[in-house]
Design brief:
The protein is α+β, with helices and mostly antiparallel strands. It has 18 helices and twelve strands. The strands form four sheets. It has a five-stranded mixed sheet. Strands 4-12-9 form a three-stranded antiparallel sheet. The structure holds protoporphyrin IX containing FE. One of its GO terms (cellular component) is membrane.
Amino acid sequence: MELHFLLPLFASLLFVFVFLKKFIQSNNRRLPLPPGTMGWPYVGETFHLYSQNPNVFFASKQKRYGSVFKTHILGCPCVMISSPEAAKFVLVTKAHLFKPTFPASKERMLGKQAIFFSQGQYHTQLRRLVLRAFMPESIKSIISNIESIAQHSLHSLQGRLITTFQEMKTYTFNVALLSILGEEEVLYRGDLKRCYYILEQGYNSMPINVPGTFFNKSMKARKELARILAKIISTRRQMKMEHNDLLGSFMGDKECLSDQQIADNVIGVIFAARDTTASVLTWIIKYLGDNPSVLKAVTDEQEAIIREKEKCGEEQCLSWADTKKMPITSRVIQETLRVASILSFTFREAVEDVEYEGYLIPKGWKVLPLFRNIHHSPEIFPDPEKFDPSRFEVVPKPNTFMPFGNGTHSCPGNELAKLEILIFLHHLTTKYRWSMVGSNSGIQYGPFALPQNGLPIRLIRKS
Ligand code: HEM
């Protein structure tokens, strides 16, 4: 009797639900697409984007069509967004409607189970483990190790003509390994570095997996990296010791990660940590060189820390508290992150039809929040091309300054990145001077914006 009554009710509810869903979808389909042009079939506007400074492409589109516009690049229809409100909509408030998306070849290189590509419960689990290893309480304990890596690196560079970006990559690679493997990193540094440097050559190569290609060599190096990591994991399991580093965090979780999941995420963290931080350091060295008054202010601030420690009879090593006494240097980092905006944008994909401000963002379209356009908006940051760290004496408005992204996939390594930059700058400005060599006004792109030729400089120890 009850079933006779319930079945028709259930069927009618289902009918209403399906009808409403179809109605909403068809209504969405009637919404206009954002303004903009899609260029030629298939190639779209890819040539326009890559034949010039990409920032000029984005800025000219924004000027013409406003802060939400459509285009077609790298074989994908895209919606570009360049207002703080739209970026918050995509990355924070409606993040569940936009999934992270990367080219398939990148996924194969880094590993399918890396944090960037994941969503839902697995992503939450990984984020908790990564954040546990990179929160201030954890990274405080490696300050003296980071300091000795910085001192050693500077010492080895003095008197030489160097390519700043290359050398900064070595520094940030070593710090990344330290944060992953703790003090054990020195044991494996050589092998891991050799494999990682081969692996990265495949990141931007054609994904053709036949012997002799960059991609093939890269995939082999990836396998070797995974083997080395499996060996480290097995040694740690036998020793049964607790470790405070990222590997320790991954291995200590109750809901055990497999060796493969750990390898994908270790490689992913090296990828996320190295070139980003190295590019920012390179830009800081350039901006300080171009702005002698700012360099003097930073040097004075860092020397004051040394004097204060001498006065109190404290050890010369930096402490966490010392890094909190560097407001001028911290503003230089913020302003560099804004002006250089090394990650100009990020990628998401709409998982269903989404309405934004009366426009339709169709399911499957890529959505690109343009961080750089927001950071260079004259309404938000007056005179945006000027390098002026003092603008950060006032805290920026919410969602206007996003060098580390925003929302569920924002950067969990931001504290470590700032810490390693501060430590490096402390030793650089107090003990060394440098001069830039050759023309240094150009910028090169791919994937990050960098000073021309990686910024050749000569580094000299102060007498
Ligand atoms: C100045 C240097 C750095 C910058 C500018 C930077 C920037 C970013 C940005 C913008 C994102 C978000 C991307 C998105 O939403 O699609 C991100 C994600 C990430 N970053 Fe960083 N990052 C830096 C350094 C680091 C370091 C040092 C680490 C690790 C030690 C790290 C680990 C990660 C990871 C694991 C993610 C993915 C998070 C997730 O998907 O949940 N980053 N980073």
